[in-house]
Structure formats: structure tokens, C-alpha cells
Amino acid sequence: MSLGIAVNILGWVGALTLIAGYRLISYGSATGRGLIYQILNLIGSLLLVINRAWHHAWPSSTVNVLWVGIAIGALVPGSASPCRECELRRRGAFLDQ
Question: For residue 32, what are the domain limits?
Fold first, then answer.
């Protein structure tokens, strides 16, 4: 297998990985701050960075580098404060009261 084919396979795996994460969020199987979602974002974006850089698609590659940075930041404990709605849910309070 040539290196170009391997890079294209990595790109497809990365794209499918990001789609899997989006599906989990869309159907309520994961949360945006959940570990599985952030790991899927990290892996999928890294694979797409490799693919896009190989093909010299710099705008797309840059977006994916930023996506990797966001995923890493979200995985660092305490890097972001929980949203108001999330905090209220955690406490068992309802927003419409």
C-alpha cells in the first residue's frame, strides 16, 4: 500500500470518527463535556490534520489543528467552568422555576 493511500484511509477514518461523535451528541448518547465525545474529537481531528496537510489543504488543516486544541483543552480537568444549565441540573434544580 502506498503512503498516499494510507493517508487517505486515515482521513476517512478521521471523518467517520468525527461523525460518530456528532451522532452521539445529536441523539443524546453523550454530552459535549463527556470524555468519549472529546476523545472522538481529538482522534478524528488528528487524523484529518494528517490527511489535510498531506494534500496541502491548509485552511482545513488549520481548522482541525484548532479542533485538536479545543479537544485537549476540554480534556484538561478544570479547564472550563460548567455552564449555568449544567450546574443547575447537577444540583437538581429546574430552569423554568
Answer: 3-91
Residue 29 lies in a domain: yes
Number of domains comprising the chain = 1
Could you read off the pLDDT of 32-81 as tens digits, one per residue? 889 999 999 999 999 999 999 999 999 999 999 999 999 999 998 866 55
Q: Which residues contact 64 (CB under 8 A, 6 or more apart)?
A: 45, 46, 48, 49, 52
pTM of the model: 0.77
Residue 18 in any domain: the answer is: yes
- For the chain, helix (H) and strand (E) counts, in that order, are 4, 0
